[in-house]
Here is the input.
Amino acid sequence: MHLRPIFQSALFTVGLFGGLSGAIASPTVTLDLPAALSEQDFFTFEPAKAEIGRLLFYDKILSGNQNISCGTCHHHELGGADGLSLGVGEGGMGLGPKRKTSDGVTQIEARIPRNAPALWNLAHRDVQNMFHDGRLFVSDEFGNGFNSPAGADLPKGLETIIAAQAMFPITARHEMAGDPEENPIGDAANEKLAVAWPIIAKRVADIPEYAEMIVAAFDDINSAEDISIVEIGNSIAAFVGTEWRNFDSPYDRYLAGQSDALTPDQKSGMELFFGEAQYSTCHSGALLTDQGFHAIGVPNFGPGKTRAFDPVARDVGRMLQTNRLQDIYKFRTPALRNVALTGPYGHNGAMPTLEAMVRHHVDPVASMKNYTKEMAGLPQAEWLQDADFTIWKDEYELARQTAMLDIQLPQMSTAQIADIVAFLNALTGDTALSLPIGRPDSVPSGLSVD
Here is the structure.
């Protein structure tokens, strides 16, 4: 059956395919597809600020021990992520799957508890929350535009949720700040986030090249003494929002009216995704996320995130923020554009491939049962290995996770799963690997660039 895309309406009438791609079409159904994206859907940023952000993003001056940058875990060569299930932050060496946890003398204290989130299209005007548990979201509650772990201490003037998000990795102990008594930022962040931010800002302001660029780019900044963490956050946001804005995939061309933009298997996968397979129940809208939270039973490992009094090394997900039992094990629905570039998948990167993640959605109980340690992309750290999978020995906790599953999707054949994976690959932009600004070769601090 010929698929005739329409331009603004979301309703597409198509035939769904059965177990084998290309089989005889079943009775027609209506698919609810979003309208094509456009530049007007995104915040725009001044190039001068984006250039400052590009340098800061890869400058280790923002970290407590000056040994890690934002780009270490969100690298151009790794699709804006790090290619690991659980990252290695402060104290690690190297990049991506080759990142080391020890230099033979010192070693990391802990893995980062959750997978490095993708950066694609965060400047879309509809993005309302960030982090896997949604602990940062748009809100007027504190008079600064956001509800966040900093509460009323988050400074005013952060222009987008990307800028607000940038405030937290640089003050996180195991991500970028370092330990208390190890450096001034680590000490300050351990006391209060708002104490650490001025120290970071002064580091940047004390570098003449940064000071000159920021004074020139921000109308309300007249000297180095005026520079605050707000300009740093807004500059990083300008870079991220510009660099990882991408919507020129085959799927985007199809939405815009090019009916032959998708191959037959991609088109079949799209029909399944928005139809019989019911993936669009959660992966809906322009960015293919409902921005909600769901418990899908991704196998747990690593340190997790839970309440201080909780004796179980687990990740309770959204409940950590809401204190509502019904939110336990729920995590934010990720956006899917360029998803083929950002594996592994899940809040802890448990699923190594798109196929594994699709199969998990079809039968999460079987997926949890058949999961093996080898599927987890964890850099070797012998001193952490026993703790990595401690949760697997707690049969009661595993039973609770299974009982709280809130997805139940139809069974799919191997061929149907392959078509869905083909569609997910059709979400990769033509220019996703040749982004407009790029990684710098050097930064004003003179520190090394990963």
